[in-house]
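Session log. Operator J.P. requested a structure for one protein chain; no other inputs attached. Running the standard single-chain path with token output.
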Amino acid sequence: MPKKRFGAEQIVTLLRQIEVSMAQGKATPVACRDAGISQQSYYRWRKEYGGLEIDQAKRMKDLERENGHDEGAFLACSCWLADCHRMQGRDDETAALLERVIGLSNDVGLLSEEYDVRNRNLTGNIPQALTHLGLINTALFLSGPVIQRAGG
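Structure written below.
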């Protein structure tokens, strides 16, 4: 049986369907089987599309096609974009973008300078301090005033 190709819209819809099934008490394998996909596809898609709306997933795929060149996505910019979302009061989008960046980390939790969207892997300098600093700052910014600085 040939592999079935799913578009971004279909994937987001299936992820939502599975989340609803799991919220109703179904186990992950059962929810995936009912949706007609493997658990492996579910986890891979959740990592890639988790938290995205259908229009955001479509836009991401369009950008991947447009930017199909050798340069990767600069991960610190993703953190800065999340900061801009937070300043606009778009906390859900901020959290989703932050989760997405965190999901790109390698097996020991480190991030690189860039992410190769086409090949779906970290590229450039690793570990990249600027990326980690941006990630930490965004997480602190999203969490609100939780740190009291002494001496001020």
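Operator note: The longest helix spans residues 8-23.
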